[in-house]
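To: structure desk
From: M.T.
Subject: fold request, one chain
Message: Could you run this one when you get a chance? Sequence is below, nothing fancy, just the single chain.
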Amino acid sequence: MAKQPNVKIVDASWHMPATNRKGKIEFLEGPRLPTATFFDIDKACDKASSLPHMLPTSEEFTQYAEALGINNNDTVILYDTLGMFSAPRVWWMFRYFGHDNVFVLNGGLPAWKADGKALDETKMDVLPPYVSEGFKAVERKDMVASLDDVKSIVASGGPTILDARSAGRFSGEVPDPRGVRPGHMPRSVNMAMTAVLDDEGRMLPKDQLERIFDKIELKNGAVTSCGSGVTACIVSLALYEAGYRGNGHQIVYDGSWAEWGSDAGGEVLTGP
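Reply: Done. Structure tokens follow.
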């Protein structure tokens, strides 16, 4: 792949803590897509928060994007090493901060390999330095929900809450990996991330996504949630691909179950 100055390829891999995998280490070891740089979800975040990888400020995101050599005129193409897992979170972050020219490689690195595309297999010791002075983040605050926002929805109605966790975690039959209370929020609907992906980890075609969401009441918008705000964005991307592209259907509960399931969170139900 020849480097194009206005196209930035970004590895946005992140892994659950229990896997003992580190996206940055795997990126440095390779293989990776040619010309790619690496976006670290755990660095581009609110470091003062006790919750995992909460959104940074617009100033912090601007600095982080510029450190990757990205400016507002760039097309950003994201991928991850699992196929479709963490890249949608970074896709949503760029859109939240006002950058719409951003896309996710469907199927990620596994699909790229399966298609026999060129790879960069050189090993790196450190991430290469980049520089840009042309990125300005502008927040779309109506695309994120706080704990109080979700409590209001639970109490009075509003956007439909789509929970991207597995059925077992939603019902409470499976313990939460972070040790918080198991179960789900009142008024929420279980939309496990796997429901919008095929067996190879690729996003389903638009017509199939449309049929999935046609079965759910979405006239008042949608809020997606998961364990910590990462895989919720897979469902947000699926909504976007199915035609639900307004900000009211692209809301992510950033604290997700890590916050709601904590002792300081909200009411928890168990069962299907």
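Reply (cont.): The chain has a mean pLDDT of 96. Let me know if you need anything else for the meeting.
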